[in-house]
Amino acid sequence: KAARLKTMVHLFRALDTSPPDELCEIIADVLGEVILCTKESNTKARSASYVLLVALAETLASCFGRDGNQVDGIRQFLQMLLAGLAGQTPHMRSASLNGLARIIAIYGKHEELQDDFVKVGEGALMLLNEKSREVAKSGVVVAKMLAVK
Fold first, then answer.
1. At what angle do helices 90-107 and 70-83 cross, to 10 degrees?
2. 127 Cβ contact list (under 8 Å, min separation 6)
3. Is the pTM of this model over 0.85?
4. Which one of 20, 64, 137, 148 has the fewest CB atoms closer than 10 angstroms to its CB?
5. Contact at 8 Å (CB) between 70 and 111?
């Protein structure tokens, strides 16, 4: 998995000239797998998935940056990640929270995204009441990232 994820990093960095609508569709197709790989037991695959997650956000930001500002691309990516919080399994919800925590760590200083991060925090706090310890633990990580930023 790690080799496939590393290859996808290079592919998505080359796709930053694609139209935003096409790029959103492509990212939506692979995002589920990338998010689930953040919970992978293999360290190389897990770290490659986090690198790919950031590369996807950067690619979408630069793609939207051609037409307006990059913040719209990050907002679009956050919306895609937030959709994972509605996943059917606790594993998917926990992985989505991990992905959100990484994006908050990278883009948390952007003033334009503060309202979006408040929405992320609300979603994470709602999941703290869940019976699954895995999800609650990931929710605490998101809360910590929001508190630090």
1. 160
2. 85, 93, 97, 135, 136, 138, 139
3. yes
4. 148
5. no
Q: Which tens digits make up the pLDDT trace of 45-98?
A: 999 999 999 999 988 888 877 666 778 888 889 999 988 888 889 999 999 999
The first and second tokens of residue 125, run together, are: 């706090």
Question: Tens digit of pLDDT for each residue in 101-131?
Answer: 999 999 888 888 888 888 888 888 888 888 8
Cα dist. 5→21, 86, 135 in Å?
22, 24, 24
Q: How far is CA 105 from the centre of its chain?
A: 11
> Helices marked H in 15-132 — which ranges?
20-37, 43-67, 70-83, 90-107, 114-127
Residues constituting the chain? 149
Q: How far apart are CA 118 and CA 149, in angstroms?
A: 11
Q: DSSP 3-state assignment of 127?
A: helix
Q: How far is CA 15 from CA 28, 73, 106, in A?
A: 14, 14, 21
Q: Tokens at residue 100, please?
A: 């959100």
